Amino acid sequence: SDRPRALSGIQPTAGSFHLGNYLGAVRQYVALQESHDAFYMVVDLHAITVPQDPAELRANTRLAAAQLLAAGLDPDRCTLFIQSHVPEHAQLGWVMNCLTGFGEASRMTQFKDKSAKQGADRATVGLFTYPILQVADILLYQANEVPVGEDQRQHIELTRDLAERFNGRFGDTFTVPKPYIVKETGKIYDLQDPTIKMSKSASTPKGLINLLDEPKVTAKKVKSAVTDTDTVIRFDPENKAGVSNLLTILSTLSGTSIADLEKSYEGKMYGALKTDLAEVMVDFVTPFRARTQEYLDDPETLDSILAKGAEKARAVAAETLAQTYDRMGF
Ligand code: ADP
Ligand code: NA
């Protein structure tokens, strides 16, 4: 294929995807199928950076794949697979570990955030080096673009640095990738605390929109979103973080520009915005839940999609790894 390559991954840990995952990342996965030779994976090796129950991990990994398909990934238009089915990830991961400075790894803010949450002594070395495994994930596929949320920008920078370092030392081997971050939706905020990003680890249940929640639970969360004591519906992230977040979500899901939304809410109260957003959210999650369930109810189809995906992914990954090993003297 002469299309540029896209590669991205999502963790299976939380069960349900949340709205930040969808708007920040998965929505772009779906769009890039049309323009790119796209590889998407469920990153189960990343999940074990924190303790996992094996049966739950297996179930959540399938659930994540089912949700990616429900969101619109088409196995005829992209390669969808499970990270652990392709052993080259761990193999190139080791190579990249040996190319990364300890200080360089120590500067990754995601590790600082995530380990602080667990208590620094309980964090694993795997959690510390997971950005380096992510480097290998991307470089194995010679990806040009990596669709992610804003929180991943630093890891893509690390990927670029390591690709250039390897190429400089051993000869041109890896494509140097770029992040593909949509400005408007690169950071979706918590509905209860719009100063922090919506996330499975930091959000309270009320601030986190899980796509697999009962639709009426979702509607309730939207209606109790934190706004401000003003009444004007205006996009102003600095002074009106809550309202601006709701406008971003509504604009993206409805396809109406923020400017048009602002016009249509002139003279109206926050309740009107929340009621409309609740309705749009319910219309979005209802078929999403149903499609996810359909894939879970048909394990043979899901297994076959993932087996074919792993085979296609492996062909590319094995070629990159062989070349890498050769250049390094193995
Ligand atoms: P989480 O960040 O909740 O732990 P993942 O690490 O699996 O979830 O993230 C999957 C993708 O979703 C990544 O590309 C990440 O950047 C994106 N993402 C996560 N939270 C948000 C958010 N609040 N807004 C935008 N994108 C997000
Ligand atoms: Na993340």
From TrEMBL:
One of its GO terms (biological process) is tryptophanyl-tRNA aminoacylation. Keywords: Aminoacyl-tRNA synthetase, ATP-binding, Cytoplasm, Ligase, Nucleotide-binding, Protein biosynthesis. ATP binds at residues 11-13, 20-21, 149-151, 188, 197-201. It catalyses: tRNA(Trp) + L-tryptophan + ATP = L-tryptophyl-tRNA(Trp) + AMP + diphosphate + H(+). CDD domains: TrpRS_core. GO terms for cellular component: cytosol. It is found in: Cytoplasm. L-tryptophan binds at residue 137. A motif ('KMSKS' region) lies at residues 197-201. PANTHER family: TRYPTOPHAN--TRNA LIGASE, MITOCHONDRIAL. NCBIfam families: trpS. Catalyzes the attachment of tryptophan to tRNA(Trp). Homodimer. Belongs to the class-I aminoacyl-tRNA synthetase family. This is Tryptophan--tRNA ligase.
